[in-house]
């Protein structure tokens, strides 16, 4: 092994190891302050980008290493979303939660597109990507204050969880459609309804086939596989089998053109039907905690320092419109089913944009600057950081003031 080759490996191992240590410290420190750790991960990645712009430490091997870890992070993230979203349970949630969900995503998408396209004068495709990205919410940011108030298992708290899960799934669905539509809009400028319809029909056909494969696997192969893994290995070994199969299903989704993120969601849904497999999530946490920070670090790393000023301006306006859209879009429908206090709590709790929002922007960014320009990407980070800081600060005193019903026994 040449000296240069060995030094290159030593460099990227040093940076990855440092990122692991720093992300762990940031999670602990920010957690004590009640700040979502993903803000620290984004900042860590951006600081690495600044260091690279000055000293060029992020070489191609280093960038590929971080990209690989970010890919596994996005798979872990979407796998968990699917794991928490049992299809049968989701259907049962629709009667009450869908009323809030429909108003929530409709107003968020419309205001997001209007602000981007007509106010900020962005191009059509970036505006569409932003509109889709801004529909999603982040339960991971909103849930801790509810847990602190011992109100998450209340009727209002569970309604919030139901709406948040629907938000995440619809956000991924919008992303899937965007990945089909926007390359056509970019390559053809304007395309006919027939061409769009044909492409969507082909996409839906492949999606149905993929979903059918996942259903058959879940119905006939998942339980025997899990049992055999449990027989041959203790719990960590079973977890590794589940994780490995999840990676393979995510990769199949990527090969079919759905992206790794959508494949990972279906992988999580595949295992969500089996309670024994869901219990392996306790062991999955270690892998989740290791890889997911790299997704957000990778986002910060991809931010161009030169685009920060423009991105902050765009992000500031989007931050205002997205907060108002979520509070009104979720809060007003929630008033019909949860009363005034419940509406206020749910409206504020739906404000944070984080995981799925950045997944959508990241997938768009991979298409090129024509889909998500650097300034728009930076604006997305500003919106994520802003909403994740605002929500806990507003939600904690609101929970104390309104005092929702406590957890049911």
Description:
It is built from 15 helices and no strands. It is globular. It has one domain: Na+/H+ antiporter like fold. With 409 residues, it is mostly helical. The mean pLDDT is 88.
Descriptive tags:
409 residues, 15 helices, mainly alpha, Na+/H+ antiporter like fold
Task: Tell me briefly what this model is.
The chain is mainly α and 409 residues long.
What is the CATH topology classification name? Answer: Na+/H+ antiporter like fold
* Overall radius of gyration: 21 Å
- Let me know the number of strands: 0
Structurally, the number of domains stands at 1
Share in helix: over 70%
Approximate shape: globular
Query: What is the element string, with H for helices and E for strands?
Result: HHHHHHHHHHHHHHH
CATH architecture: Up-down Bundle
Distance between the termini: 62 Å
CATH class: Mainly Alpha
Sheet with most strands: none
**Uncertain regions: pLDDT < 50 for 5+ in a row?**
none
Whole-number average pLDDT?
A: 88
Amount of beta strand = under 5%
Q: Please, how many helices?
A: 15
Q: Specify the structural class.
A: mainly alpha
